[in-house]
């Protein structure tokens, strides 16, 4: 595949073929550039999250979002819709688990005040002396971060953890 550029030299957005384990299409988009406004909002020398324990671990990349990091191997922005994200969790065999059972590799889902999914990430550490997992996630079109669950710009008062525990189609199809 080759990128196509518009008259201003900006690469056009693309999509990839992305499917759940049960072969349902996952809507996605690969934006290849930032607007000037987006570039100007990425860098904050007084980042309060860094001061509170978040660690930036990547350069900015517009191609994928947090759901693309969590469910799309950093290849694309997975559509931020309840239907799409619930389809992925169900079709791929994720099961909800309690925070006390969380292990590295599990997925965390942040919900807004209305109960809608607003952010996802991957648990990378659970050895915090207070039992607060560390998460690897991507904040918007910006950077990847490793951060304690509550140290991010998303609502951390309602999070749920999921583990990929069903590996075979027959197990996934036997939904409880």
List the helices and strands and how they pair.
Layout: E1 28-29, H1 36-42, H2 48-51, E2 55-56, H3 66-71, E3 77-78, H4 82-91, E4 94-97, E5 107-111, E6 117-125, E7 134-138, E8 144-148, E9 159-164, H5 169-173
Antiparallel strand pairs: 1-3, 2-8, 4-9, 5-6, 5-9, 6-7, 7-8
Query: What's the domain count?
Result: 1
Order of helices and strands: EHHEHEHEEEEEEH
CATH architectural group: Alpha-Beta Complex
- Described by its quaternary structure, the protein is single chain
Distance, first to last CA: 41 Å
Average of pLDDT: 89
Computed structural class: alpha+beta
Q: What is the general shape?
A: flat
Beta-strand content = 15-25%
Name the CATH class: Alpha Beta
User: What is the CATH topology assignment?
Assistant: endopeptidase fold (from Nostoc punctiforme)
């Amino acid at each position: 595949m080759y990128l196509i550029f518009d008259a201003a030299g900006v690469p056009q957005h693309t999509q990839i073929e992305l499917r759940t384990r049960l072969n349902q299409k996952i809507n996605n988009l690969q934006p290849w550039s930032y607007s000037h406004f987006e570039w100007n909002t990425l860098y904050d020398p007084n980042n309060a999250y860094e001061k509170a324990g978040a660690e930036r671990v990547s350069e900015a990349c517009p191609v994928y979002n947090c759901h693309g990091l969590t469910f799309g191997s950093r290849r694309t922005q997975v559509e931020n819709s309840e239907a799409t994200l619930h389809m992925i969790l169900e079709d791929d065999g994720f099961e909800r688990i309690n925070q006390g059972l969380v292990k590295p590799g599990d997925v965390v889902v942040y919900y807004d005040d209305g109960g809608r999914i607003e952010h996802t990430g991957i648990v990378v550490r659970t050895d915090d002396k207070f039992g607060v997992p560390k998460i690897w996630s991507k904040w918007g079109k910006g950077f990847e971060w490793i951060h304690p669950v509550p140290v991010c710009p998303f609502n951390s008062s309602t999070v749920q953890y999921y583990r990929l525990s069903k590996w075979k189609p027959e197990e996934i199809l036997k939904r409880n």
